[in-house]
Design goal:
Number of strands of chain A: 10
Number of strands of chain B: 0
Helix content of chain A: 25-40%
Oligomer: heterodimer
Radius of gyration of chain A: 21 Å
Order of helices and strands of chain B: HHHHHHHHH
Mean pLDDT of chain B: 92
Structural class of chain A: alpha/beta
Strand order of the largest sheet of chain A: 6-7-8-3-9-10
Shape of chain A: globular
Strand content of chain A: 15-25%
Order of helices and strands of chain A: HHEEEHEEHEHHHEHEHEEHHH
Structural class of chain B: mainly alpha
Distance between the termini of chain A: 60 Å
Chain lengths: 290, 260
């Protein structure tokens, strides 16, 4: 940082941010508030994501888990609060600096987000071709190494529409690690997967974390799979952090919110019914279309 | 009344907001062209997709429009004994008006709608978002090459349309209705002006290509990322492009040929 500050004195502010971070924190979310229209998604929440650890964000659907990843990636702007990644205040970076930071951040989208006009090989090679000037022979080697890591070297010629959901996510994972990032954000990696694919993804996420030392942020509502590999878990609901701790601590939490989520109870602090007027009154209201 | 005014205010606000987004999008797209130039492969791929794949519809439409012009022109001109000027009539109609306008309308329907659907679906399937997270600017990588390809293809397609149309007129006029072939071509050569007719037609097609590509790409980029949203965006591309092309055609014609 010191060297870069000599060349870029305007980055001094980020160095100051860095000093305020807990030493082992790669991503730091402080007093974050964010709304969509009148809907408050986050209300003054603070989270820390430690280096080389797997941190999970859990919570019911619609609690803004994916939104949080987009905020960390700088695709959305918070109303209040700051998000720092590796000492950089994401939302104060210039476009160039933000893109440079993103080169060190991988993201696995729920849909995989593979480019549909390219085959598997070209999809994984895409970030390498865009950001490096490596010769094609070296790109080939790197792509095959990444595909080997996710067990799909043999699928290199397939098009995205020929892949199963689990394969598409593994290819997307290979693409996400193509530039050897410092962290990966996983957006609902287990949703819609069969048990074998889930098992493969759990194994991959854990291996990448252990072998490459990647910092991993998993957004998920799959309790068992996530709790099995996470080092630390945050449970979000209604814009607040309602529980946090190691998987064991979360399991033993006395919070009603946490217990409802972990046990999958249909009703509790998070209501089964969407807010509506009295049921009987509603049924007896005539002359209205809705 | 209050409700009407509220509705009017909201619609106006929405329209101007969208116009602002579209203008900002255009600025980013045009700026992004600079990063396309060192990568001609990207441009050529899109020129194939936007231009070459429109070749068939443009050629066939041009041929039939030219044949109809030959037929209609012959019946009108022969009443005045002026059927030998058929070549001028066909060529002037095509080069000045029908070539740029009809090819632009066909371009909007064929390539424009495809561009909107493609970009809209890329948005719906998070491909654009994924690119952003890979530190690749989707405007520079996806939008600008398509914009430049549309912009460059349009005058070529309009030229092709006019050329094939003139041949269609000649097939009907000379081949079927007995107009002297030499007169068909020589009258055309003598009367058509390079600056007034051909260059003005090319300018029109460049303007139409610019506008049709802009509308198609913006509607895709701005689409609501659902199947219905993409469907509506595709419809808006065809409708808005048609209105813009026809409206601009009137303005350009008035500016170019107003003093004649």
């Amino acid at each position: 940082m010191e060297n870069s500050l000599l060349n870029f004195p305007h980055l001094a502010i980020y160095a100051m941010d860095n000093s305020a971070l807990p030493q082992n924190s790669l991503v730091s979310v402080k007093n974050l508030s964010f709304s969509r229209g009148n809907n408050k998604i986050f209300d003054d929440i603070s989270l820390e994501f430690e280096r080389s650890k797997i941190t999970a964000i859990m919570g019911p659907s619609g609690t803004g888990k994916t939104t949080l990843l987009k905020l960390i990636g700088g695709q959305l702007f918070p109303e209040l609060g700051t998000i720092s990644v590796d000492g950089n205040n994401v939302h104060r970076l210039s476009r160039t600096d933000l893109y440079n930071l993103r080169k060190r951040m991988g993201m696995l989208f729920q849909s995989g987000a593979l480019l549909t006009d390219m085959n598997v090989f070209d999809n994984v090679a895409f970030p390498l071709r865009e950001h490096t000037h490596l010769p094609e022979s070296m790109i080939r080697t790197l792509v095959l190494m990444k595909l080997q890591a996710v067990g799909l070297r043999g699928a290199r010629k397939l098009m995205p529409n020929e892949l199963s959901g689990g394969m598409a996510r593994r290819i997307a994972l290979a693409r996400a690690i193509a530039l050897d990032p410092m962290m990966i954000m996983y957006d609902e990696p287990f949703t819609g997967q069969d048990p074998i694919s889930k098992g493969a993804l759990v194994h991959l996420i854990k291996s990448l974390n252990t072998i490459l030392g990647l910092t991993s942020i998993i957004v998920s509502h799959d309790v068992q799979e996530t709790a099995a590999i996470a080092d630390y878990i945050y449970v979000l609901s209604e814009g607040k952090v309602v529980g946090q701790g190691t998987p064991k601590e979360i399991e033993q939490s006395e919070s009603d919110w946490v217990q409802q989520f972990m046990t999958g109870a249909a009703d509790g602090p998070a209501h089964f019914h969407y807010p509506a007027k009295d049921y009987v009154d509603d049924l007896l209201s005539t002359g209205k279309r809705y | 009344m209050i409700e009407f005014l509220q509705h009017l205010g909201k619609s106006t606000h929405t329209s101007f907001t969208k116009l602002g987004r579209a203008t900002y999008f255009l600025l980013q797209t045009v700026t992004g062209i600079l990063s396309v130039l060192p990568r001609p492969g990207l441009l050529l791929k899109q020129m194939y997709s936007v231009g070459v794949l429109s070749f068939l519809i443009i050629t066939i439409s041009g041929l039939f429009v030219g044949m109809v012009l030959g037929l209609q022109g012959y019946y009108i001109l022969s009443d005045f004994g002026a059927e030998e000027t058929l070549g001028v009539m066909v060529a002037a109609s095509l080069v000045r008006e029908l070539g740029p306008v009809v090819s632009a309308l066909l371009f909007a329907g064929r390539a424009g709608s495809a561009l909107t659907a493609e970009i809209g679906l890329m948005k719906a399937t998070e491909q654009l978002s994924g690119m952003e997270m890979m530190a690749v600017d989707p405007i520079k990588r996806i939008i600008s090459p398509r914009f430049l390809a549309g912009f460059l293809s349009m005058p070529l397609l309009a030229g092709l349309f006019s050329a094939v149309g003139i041949i269609g007129g000649q097939i009907v006029g000379s081949g079927l209705l007995g107009v002297d072939e030499g007169a068909y071509w020589s009258q055309m050569q003598a009367k058509l002006d390079f600056q007034d007719d051909i260059i003005n037609g090319v300018i029109k097609s460049i303007v139409f290509g610019f506008v049709a590509s802009w509308i198609a790409l913006f509607e895709g980029y701005d689409a609501i990322p659902t199947s219905e949203g993409v469907s509506r965006a595709t419809t808006r591309t065809v409708v808005n492009s048609a209105f813009s092309i026809l409206g601009l055609d009137f303005i350009l014609t008035a500016l170019m040929f107003g003093d004649d």
